[in-house]
Design brief:
Blueprint lengths: L28 H7 L1 H20 L9 E5 L2 E8 L2 H12 L6 E8 L7 H13 L8 E6 L2 E8 L2 H12 L6 E8 L7
Parallel strand pairs: 2-3, 5-6
Antiparallel strand pairs: 1-2, 4-5
Length: 187
C-alpha cells in the first residue's frame, strides 16, 4: 500500500513516484550511519550543534534552515533572501570544530519579481555609502549576477565592496572585475 504524501512544491507533484526530491540527499542517512556507530553518534552531535547555531543566530533563525551531517560533512537546506546570508551560513558551518566539509543546499529567493535594473540600483546605493567606491566603482547586473568594475586601493576594500554588493536583494553571484591600484582609486 502506497501512502499519499502532499507535494512540497508545485513541481513535486510531477515527479515520478520514488524519485528523490532535488533537496533530498541521494545517499540515505541510514546507510552512512550503518558504516560506523561511533561516526553516527558524532554526526548526530555535530548536527545538533549546527542546528542550534542556525536556530539561535539572530540573522538566520527566521528562515527555518535544516541541517544534516554525514561523515562530518554538513549540509544546510533552506531559502534565504540575500547572497550575503548564504555566504554567512558557509562561514558559520565551517567554523564548527569537527565539520570537515560543507555542501550548500541553500537557495536565494526574493518576495516577488525583482529586475536586474532594481538590483543594480540597490547595489549602487550600497556602494555610494563606501568612500573608496563612490565614483570609482560601477556595477552591471545580468540575470542576478553583479559585475563590479573600476579601481580600488586595496584587496581589503575590494572584499568590503563585494560584501556590500552581496547584501543587495536579488543578487545570486558577485563577479569582481575590480583592479587594485594603490596610487589611483579612480576609474
Amino acid at each position: 500500500m502506497q501512502r499519499f504524501r502532499e507535494p512540497e512544491t508545485q513541481w513535486d507533484q510531477h515527479r515520478p513516484p520514488g524519485s528523490p526530491r532535488p533537496r533530498e540527499s541521494r545517499r540515505p542517512q541510514v546507510e552512512a550511519e550503518a558504516k560506523s556507530p561511533a561516526a553516527a553518534q558524532s554526526n548526530d552531535g555535530l548536527r545538533g550543534i549546527l542546528q542550534r547555531k542556525l536556530r539561535q543566530d539572530v540573522n538566520l533563525r527566521g528562515y527555518g534552515l535544516e541541517a544534516t551531517v554525514i561523515d562530518q560533512v554538513a549540509r544546510v537546506q533552506g531559502v534565504v533572501d540575500t547572497l550575503a546570508e548564504k555566504l554567512y551560513i558557509r562561514e558559520l558551518v565551517t567554523s564548527i570544530p569537527g565539520i570537515s566539509g560543507y555542501e550548500d543546499g541553500v537557495s536565494i529567493s526574493t518576495d516577488g519579481a525583482i529586475t536586474d535594473e532594481q538590483v543594480k540600483m540597490e547595489i549602487s546605493e550600497e556602494l555610494d555609502t563606501h568612500p573608496a567606491s563612490s565614483g570609482n566603482v560601477g556595477v552591471q547586473v545580468c540575470d542576478g549576477t553583479a559585475y563590479l568594475k573600476g579601481r580600488v586601493p586595496s584587496k581589503e576594500v575590494e572584499a568590503e565592496i563585494i560584501r556590500l554588493a552581496s547584501s543587495a536583494r536579488g543578487v545570486i553571484q558577485v563577479v569582481s572585475q575590480l583592479r587594485i591600484d594603490p596610487d589611483r582609486a579612480g576609474p
